[in-house]
Amino acid sequence: MVRQSLDGQTLDRQTVRTYLDFEKPIAELESKVAELKLLSGDETAMSIAEEITRLEQKANSALVETYAKLTPWQKTQVARHPERPHCLDYVGALIEEFTPLAGDRYFAEDEAIVGGLGRFRGKTVMVIGHEKGTDTESRIRHNFGMARPEGYRKAVRLMEMADKFGCPVLTLVDTAGAYPGIGAEERGQAEAIARSTDCCLALGVPLVTAVIGEGGSGGAVAIASANRILMLENAIYTVASPEAAASILWRDSARAQDAATNMRITAQDLKDLGVIDVIVKEPIGGAHRDHAAVVAALGDAIATALQEFTGMSPAEIKAQRHARFLEIGRSL
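RE: above sequence
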């Protein structure tokens, strides 16, 4: 990755941006624009104004052109971008009166999965999602969004609570996969994932899932066996991370790019396969460039999805969810 800097000049958080490897030409252009803007307060301002405009137009054109033809591996990089909005960003912007609920009532609290009750556009909902964290301290606290068994057991507890009180469930998926540590396996990781998946399928209330970044393996499916699955334009959803798949198929994790290309992990591929229902457009340059725009777009998509189940009985909602997943197998 390339990080923009201006020869020792101190820039605010909004000016400094992390660039991915394939964005280097864009980084160079935007760096030049920033340098010229630092000079805009002196007597040369008028003479460089046209140059700033020209470079901004060139940078924008390069951004549009680059993001119009991203490869699956480049989309993987965008989905993992450190400045991409995470679960708590969406919760903070879309959910009013959010009350977090913690613990699985068996072993411990797992902060890789956050959840709680709140109001989405006037309607009470249960929100559950993977949280990766935004800095070193929070990433360690949230275990980079990789849940342990107690995280999935907490998800089951919250989904059953929502079902009891008739609240729709919203899940936000953003994980490389379930935590593969020894302790997690000792406490029944596979069983916890299976029970969480089964709980999703058994709910009599609408369950709407949004894949906002990475949707990795059973760690994602455990809270994503939903009536409607939404997916951000540059997110990925996969049976295993490209690195893990490359290690399995070719015994070489360096071939992750080949795995990403062949596994059909992008939103566009998955929509064609019927695995997901809706692709939510991202701002040009990815969700990390305009948090407000992508949050608004996802909020509208969630509202539309929930509206589809207005007036349906619990039995009808459950039947629709079962039919949705059975249809994937019939159509492939």
